Amino acid sequence: MGVEIERKFLVTDDRWRSLSTGVLYRQGYIADQPGRTVRVRIAGDRGFLTIKGSTSGITRLEFEYMIPIADANEMLDRLCTPPIIEKYRYTINLGNITWEVDEFLGDNQGLIIAEVELQNVEQAIDLPDWLGEDVSHDPRYYNSNLSKHPFKHW
Hints:
Layout: E1 3-11, E2 23-33, E3 36-43, E4 46-53, E5 59-67, H1 69-78, E6 81-94, E7 97-104, E8 112-117, E9 131-134, H2 143-148
Antiparallel strand pairs: 1-5, 1-8, 1-9, 2-3, 2-6, 3-4, 4-5, 6-7, 7-8
């Protein structure tokens, strides 16, 4: 069984930019209802289908599978509810921690979030000085919610 344990933080400045190169992500939702989502994502030149369960604290079930990119494009174009989320993702390794910084485009432009997946809910991590508020418990920052309630409307 796949379990995702994740913390999310707002990013306060650009000091992280020199640490990585971004990859364009496009993602949409085939199903999004309380307790579960089905997402299609293209990350660079790879396609994924992801099923997520409801969040409890900072933990939720997650199952992710690679799919052919042609299938992912077809699903994004024909099955996903608009709008499609677009963002650049930057992967930054600091010590034994991998941070993913998402710089959103389109209706979510101006929003930059850093997230880290943990091994357990008690795992201690050193926070880079370019992080701000912990928004792990704020559902507005879930990508599925950003597709329905874009950042520009907040």
